[in-house]
Amino acid sequence: MRRYSMFAVAREALRFHAGWEKAWKSPEPKKRYDVIVVGAGGHGLATAYYLGKVHGITNVAVIEKGWLGGGNTGRNTTIIRSNYLQDPSAAIYEKARALYEDLSQDLNYNVMFSPRGLLMLGQTEHEVRGYKRTVYANNLQGVETRWIGPQEVKDLVPIINIDGPRYPVLGALYQERGGTARHDAVAWGYARACSNMGMDIIQQCEVTGIRTEGGQVVGVDTSKGSIDCGKLAIVVAGHSSVLAEMAGFRLPIESAALQAWVSEPIKPCMDVVVMANTVHGYMSQSDKGEMVIGGGTDGFNNYTQRGSWHHVEETTRALVETFPIISRLKMLRQWGGIVDMTGDRSPILSKTPVGNIFVNCGWGTGGFKSIPGSGFAMAELVAKGEPGPLAAEFGLNRFKEGRFIDESVAAGVAH
Amino acid sequence: MLTLTCPYCGVTAEETELAPGGEAHLKRFGPGSSDEEFESYMFARKNPKGVHFERWRHANGCGKWFLAARCTATLEVFGTYSAQTKEPPADIIAAIKAKRPGWEGYK
Ligand SMILES: Cc1cc2nc3c(=O)[nH]c(=O)nc-3n(C[C@H](O)[C@H](O)[C@H](O)COP(=O)(O)OP(=O)(O)OC[C@H]3O[C@@H](n4cnc5c(N)ncnc54)[C@H](O)[C@@H]3O)c2cc1C
Ligand SMILES: [Zn+2]
Fold first, then answer.
1. N or C: fewer beta carbons within 10 Å in chain A?
2. Which residues of B touch A306 (CB under 8 A)?
3. What structural domains does chain A harbor?
4. Which residues of chain B have pLDDT under 70?
């Protein structure tokens, strides 16, 4: 693999860009792999990457039914933060955020990580108290956040209306090193690095069955034939229940649609990410100038990647009250993804009832930010067969033991 | 927008008039049950890509809970029925089988 650099850009500029090579190979599947990862979203690709980089396991295939990054990884609003309430969450999300800081250098691929700062608005007395509590927790966890007052919010976000009649802005939970990254680039960067380590990324290949013998996984059936494996990592977000069913167990997961939409591009007007959880909306401005907007999930089981229209209306209405200048903007595009929701709104990184099958799912509405940390922790789980400290609390056994990692209140809203 | 007909008041209601309530026909386990039974009743869900039986409440209408059979892969509704049933009624099963010949049944 030729490295990307300033010199490469200069060299290619002199020869009509004829020398760029394909970022990853598209091989036919081999008969057997040590590890098969199902799902080439960010989490699956990052799992494969750290399996190779940290654990030296490179006889790995990542199998994807569509195109890599075409699931939620390519559909999210790219918010990155680690200001969670519970200790296990703060640990894994902060690990991820920290890895994002130099991910572009590590992968030799520009993921456009932009730690532009992130505000979670406090708009009711309860929310203010909740976020102050999170700030205290974060300080103990080593996650840098602070509480700021309404005037500082206004200074950071001049377009915001802080004295709205119904939900005035009372302050905000501020994480200065939160922000965004380019979602496609995260998938592409990991894919290129995996391919470079000799791993096979097999697209347009759907896993249709899981073969087991004596309670152990031995391989998968796919639309490109059957492939044997030593270990299997299921990392398919919204389709986790479908894959679990193939392997003969059930998960505490429900799949629902979550939507996002963007406005026509406008001049730079907001250089932080703002989340308004009470009114259920959040917004940032993309590098192209579009206002990127998201809201809440639909409440019912759904696999269609199509959400309900009234959520778009509700969220936009709330944001227009918070940011009056967007009221005349035209919306350009709207889309949906299928998110994998757990009851405590925390992810699952776990062994399963079947030997050598591992699952990584349940990131729901907020797993873009966690891709590097999740891949790191999942690789350790798959390589050693036992979770390391980052994944230990996120096992399936927490449901039986009533040991929830409750982020449903702390995280408040989608993403 | 999803529309369901409330089997009690007969109103064909839009989604904004309804509140979703998750998987229907769960077998309840309480005190005296094993940890496994309680866990699977509380948390494990079929979450199928296809035919799904689910609870809805006509929240901004007559206020009653009812059940619906719906396809999560297409959003097609096969029918709605009273919540006072332990299993999906025969006419609902027939409506599903007519449209999904390969369907393996509700268990
Ligand atoms: C609208 C929206 C906004 C969001 N906003 C944010 C945000 O701002 N910040 C944030 O942190 N998170 C956000 N999220 C959540 C985030 O996108 C996800 O948690 C994350 O991308 C999940 O990554 P993944 O790799 O687990 O899943 P995916 O990217 O969905 O990848 C799973 C892959 O598995 C493949 N697959 C499924 N079944 C099979 C099969 N049988 N065989 C082979 N392959 C299969 C799929 O095709 C898919 O490519 C948002 C999500 C949505 C939908
Ligand atoms: Zn009714």
1. N
2. 75
3. 27-82+84-108+183-252+344-401 (3.50.50.60), 118-177+255-342 (3.30.9.10)
4. 107
Residue A56 to residue A50: CA distance in whole angstroms = 9
**In 3D, which of A181, A189, A252 has the Cα closest to residue A45?**
A189
Burial class (CB in 10 A: 0-12, 13-18, 19+), A196: middle
For residues A187-209, give the mean pLDDT: 98
Q: What is the pLDDT of residue B104?
A: 87
**Which of the following CATH numbers is that of domain B3-25+48-99: 3.30.2270.10, 3.40.190.10, 3.40.50.1820, 3.30.300.110?**
3.30.2270.10
Tell me whether residues A242 and B49 touch, CB distance under 8 A: yes
A155-192 tens-digit pLDDT: 999 999 999 888 999 999 999 999 999 999 999 999 99
Q: How is chain B split into domains, by residue range? A: 3-25+48-99
Residues in chain A with CB shorter than 8 Å from the CB of B19 are: 299
* The predicted structure's pLDDT at residue B1: 82
For residue A413, pLDDT over 70 is answered with no
**pLDDT confidence of residue A415:** 52
Q: Compare all CA atoms of chain B with the CA of A311 and give the residue at the minimum distance.
A: B16
pLDDT of residue A105: 98
**CA B67 – CA B70 distance, rounded (Å):** 10
pLDDT recorded at residue A42: 98
pLDDT per residue over A282-292, tens digit each? 999 999 999 99
Tell me if residue B95 falls in helix, strand or coil. helix
Mean pLDDT value of segment A249-253? 97
Pocket test residue of A76, A292, A311, A315 for ligand 1, highest count of atoms within 8 A of CB: A76
Mean pLDDT (chain A, rounded): 96
Q: Strand locations in A163-290, DSSP E?
A: 171-175, 179-180, 200-202, 207-213, 216-222, 225-234, 254-263, 273-276, 281-285
Q: Please enumerate residues of A whose Cβ is less than 8 A from a Cβ of B.
A: 239, 241-242, 245, 250-255, 299-304, 306, 308-310, 343, 399-400
Strand partners, A254: A341
Quote the pTM value: 0.97
Q: Where are the alpha helices (DSSP H) in A143-293?
A: 150-156, 183-196, 240-247
Q: Which residues line ligand 1 (CB under 6 A)?
A: A 38-44, 63-66, 70-73, 75-79, 206-207, 235-237, 239, 243, 258-260, 294, 337, 339, 363, 365-369, 415
